[in-house]
Amino acid sequence: MSSTSLSPQPGVEALRRAAPGRVHVPGEAGYDAARTPWNLAAAQHPAVVAEPTSVEEVRALVDAARTAGLRIVPQTTGHAAAALGGRADGALLLQLRHLRGVEVDPAARTARVLGGTTWQEVVAAAAPHGLTAAHGSAGDVGVVGYALSGGLSFYGRRHGLAVEHVRAVELVLPTGELVRATADVEPDLFWACRGAAATLGVVTAVEIDLLPYPDVHAGMLLWDAVHAAAVLPAWLSWTEDLPESVTTSLRVMSFPPLPELPPFLSGRSVVVVDGAVLEDDDVAGALLAPLRTLDPEMDTFTRMPAPGLLEVHMDPPTPTPATSVHALLGPLDADGVAAVLAAATTPSPLLFTELRHLGGALARSNPEGGALTSLPGSYLLHCVGAVVSPEVGAAARAAGEGVLAAMRPWHVDGAALTFVDDVVEGTGSPAQAAFGADALRRLRIVSSVYDPTDAVVAARTLD
Ligand SMILES: Cc1cc2nc3c(=O)[nH]c(=O)nc-3n(C[C@H](O)[C@H](O)[C@H](O)COP(=O)(O)OP(=O)(O)OC[C@H]3O[C@@H](n4cnc5c(N)ncnc54)[C@H](O)[C@@H]3O)c2cc1C
Description:
By secondary structure, the chain is an alpha+beta fold.
């Protein structure tokens, strides 16, 4: 169904009253900008888009959507829009990016963060107090979409998944009721929110613990890809015997010649190791020494103010059309090292193949935590392609699935929900893999209580 055929939509006038000037239907100025997600490869054709700026507007919009029989699709940035797979079409897209703000309590080392806030705002607000947060590699990712689905950071091997740092969740349920869930109040809902809040309602705020780092030893090492056969096995072997203070990633990346790229990337294939070492400079230097003996062409590891960690992974600074797949890998034996080296260095339409080092606190389950507390495996394998055309996107996607298939003997059961962009053929339910059967059964029971009509459409479902 085309988006224009959906207008006029029943209930639009009630939605307009709920958020005056902030509701757009197809054909109106503002509709296209409001429906466009960060991942430009994911086309979204909602019946209506609303951009609330307050909790009251969110509640009123949810009430009006329920009366109109519209499903609700909360979205903050659209980094995960591809995972919706067209499910925003015909629904009310709630763009939450104007519901933003951060209040830091330096004494408690916590922050209260509104539902549409991105990590760069949290990190900027925490930094003057000598604090930071368990953000991921990109500062423009949303706090809720990341932290309540896990959240893998360069602080992860020491401090665990970001979801473990969530102390309270405030959400508007499909009934329009605003609830605050903590370990003491609505404990079942709080348990479910820590992993699956997005399936239960519209999150209007979270309270998170901050991390006590005013600065951090971080950066990247870069080699030409001709050195991948030396660097990749050396990095894998280095990761086998590291303290939990070290969390890094290795990527084999290939870039077309583009003027907007820095010269060290434009038109080149490179191997990059980046991340953080939560130690003093002498210890960090000693830990990094084995990689430095491989003579990197660039070496930016240094002590930097904690917000600098948002830059080291060089994620795209603006909306980008992308496709990605991932899998969790166990320890790699000699055959596994050879297989991942071959898969990562075979010319392909992929932009990069990445290994993120897991283990440490990321691997420790917390019985006192929520539905999701840990990630199994030694490495997260992540393949990303730029969707410069549908054909290139399909080829990149197939290449990524090929890399995953080549590494199947080393897969471990599990999934990182924040890296679920789409369902990969033959891999089963990401929810089953991420939560496990028992937690998923309990989540479905909670969901049947709080969202019995399945009114909320989440990128990562309980299917
Ligand atoms: C460049 C890039 C770098 C990344 N780096 C990392 C990384 O280092 N570590 C990591 O773990 N992940 C990473 N990710 C994945 C990212 O964390 C997930 O895709 C995350 O879900 C994005 O959240 P978002 O709010 O930005 O995106 P959105 O697409 O806006 O949100 C994703 C989903 O979260 C839910 N949601 C968002 N906001 C709300 C809300 N207020 N209320 C209810 N539901 C909501 C919705 O279901 C929505 O579909 C990265 C992704 C990209 C594209």
